[in-house]
Structure prediction request, 409 residues.
Amino acid sequence: MKKAVTISKYQQAFDTLCNKDLVQSLYGECRDLMDGVLLTLHGQQHTARRNIEFKLFRRDFIRYYEKEIYPLTARAAIAPYRQRGHMDLIDFGYRVNMNLTADFSGIDRPRGSAQETEQLLDIVKKFSEGATLFHSTRDKDEVRAEVREAMALFDQVFFQPSKQRREQLLRDCQNGDISADDLPRDVLMILLQHNAEAQLSEAQLSEAMMRREIGFFLQAGAHSTGNSMVHAFHEISRWCDRHPQDRERIDRDPLFLQRCVHESLRLHPASPVAWRTAACPLSLPSGDEVEAGRQVIVDLQAANTDTDIFGADAHLYNPHRQLESRCPPYALTFGIGVHTCFGRDLAGGSVPRGEVDRDRHYLGTLTRLLATLFDNGVVPDPHNPPQRDADTERNNWGRYPVVFEGGKR
Ligand code: HEM
Prediction:
């Protein structure tokens, strides 16, 4: 087999990701979690699953999520740390985003206890290790066995009770005891509704499939958003040390804070690469001719710092960077094409273009999280520097100690 083709220029990377004859190939290392989930499906099967899940976004879902779900979850997550006066930002990021994504995915936490959160957190962290197994520096079989164990526990403690509660609600709805508007708005509910409509047909999803899909969603939301939050906090804090006037602007201008977050997303894509395999012989926008089965690596990190698009200082953090209008400020960090991140608008918000109606604009959970941190006076711990994560080749933080210094609330 010939060596993989690597694409590093922004526009070529964009066009390559939009090619429907390229099949997802980065997530084959951990089939117990990733087999048949949205991210690994191709063609008609992918379109069908995406169409089912896209129904979740009906009736202004993102605004509902930002206004109703986010504030409660964020307040509950930060309160115990604030009392203590310090925390590890990685831990907080995982915890708050895991709770947010659990709401979105449809996993109940009926006891609401610290022990229940810990248990789900351990499971989701294990799922994240499985999903990013390709970049792991650990023994891969060992990680696979741990993911299987986590999946069994997830099924028993979280998935089955959440599924059974929703099935009962669906029956209540079918019997006219409650209205469709009273059903929970989450992915699991959408999948169960789909199965009820597709009764006994091939379109029905198996229970194991739904379990993997929800497990994948939980990790997709918690892991990427958690890491992105820590990167953004680090970049913004360092920027404001050198530009104190921007610190004040952040406090009064949420759109500027969103711009700061988007610039950090550009520099720190959740996965540094996207991998695809050619389904048939094809020509790439780079001019390379590839045969069926050849690997194509889209280097998102390189594309996001392409100097032709982002300027000579593309590798540096600068929230005042002037952008070409055709390029989103976070570049390719949420992917593009058929596999564009499902949580993009939820996490990143809408991209301001021209005059913005601030009441209708989505800031995204990431910007809201950063605002929550700054409002609470969170700053890097001056006596305890952050450290990189040694268990992965990805450029993530492993430890990020912070302290609370007063704050507005
Ligand atoms: C900062 C946060 C996030 C980043 C940077 C991110 C990044 C990405 C990227 C790059 C992809 C495409 C991968 C590829 O093309 O190979 C993707 C797909 C996906 N993401 Fe995200 N993501 C984030 C948050 C979320 C959240 C919050 C959710 C769910 C609530 C989510 C759910 C998904 C799903 C379901 C897919 C698969 C879409 C498909 O294959 O059709 N992501 N994400």
Q: What stands out?
A: The two ends are 60 Å apart (CA to CA). The chain has a mean pLDDT of 92.
